[in-house]
Amino acid sequence: MGCGVSHSSFFTMDLPMQDYFDFLEDLRESGETNMFGAAPYLRREWPELSRTEARDVLMAWMKSYDDQD
């Protein structure tokens, strides 16, 4: 799943991408949700994220798994 977004130039927000990625990894390990439905969890944790931003963060996190291969 590629979104064409580089991690280093993702958002101009205060939080580094690693904070989002750490949250998503913890969520994945918890088994609470299928990760394709994780964007609303990001928005609950960081209400300042728009729907699009939350989806983009999720897609970048998923792509990071592709990049590890």
Structure in words:
This protein is mainly alpha-helical and 69 residues long. It has one domain (14-67). Helix content is 55%, strand content 0%. It has three helices and no strands. The protein has helices spanning 17-30, 39-45, 51-67.
Number of domains: 1
Overall morphology: globular
Number of helices: 3
Major sheet details? none
What oligomerization state is this entry in? single chain
Instruction: Give the mean pLDDT.
Output: 83
Beta-strand proportion: under 5%
Uncertain residue ranges: 1-13
DSSP helix fraction: 55-70%
Kindly provide the radius of gyration, computed on alpha-carbon positions and rounded to a whole number of angstroms.
11 Å
Euclidean distance between termini CA atoms: 13 Å
Using brief descriptors, characterize the structure shown.
69 residues, mainly alpha, 3 helices
SSE blueprint and pairings:
Layout: H1 17-30, H2 39-45, H3 51-67
Summed up:
55% of the residues lie in helices and 0% in strands.
